[in-house]
Protein: UPF0060 membrane protein DSY4629
Amino acid sequence: MFYAIILFILAGLAEIGGGYLVWLWLREAKPFWYGIIGGLILVLYGVIPTLQKFPSFGRVYAAYGGVFVILAVLWGWGIDKKVPDNYDWIGAVICLVGVSVMLWAPRN
Structure:
């Protein structure tokens, strides 16, 4: 379980970090190499989920969606200095519960 959580976090950081660099390049006139590095990081994001032990592509990517929401709230708070409000935190907790149910609910 620890391995899965680490991979979810790494993938989320790669997705958000890569996307953020592309955003800075295109929206805030940063140098072209921001976009190149961001694109390479996004390719890495595409590879990381393949390291998961869960057999279902759909389930893994759905779970990444929930983790992404949580990490995006934290990224916005830490990097963009946008303090999350109560609704942001409530939404993040709901996503975390959903991810937990999807991945670790007992199945036959």
User: Anything to note?
Assistant: The chain has one domain: 2-104. The radius of gyration is 15 Å. The CA atoms of residues 59 and 102 lie 7 Å apart.
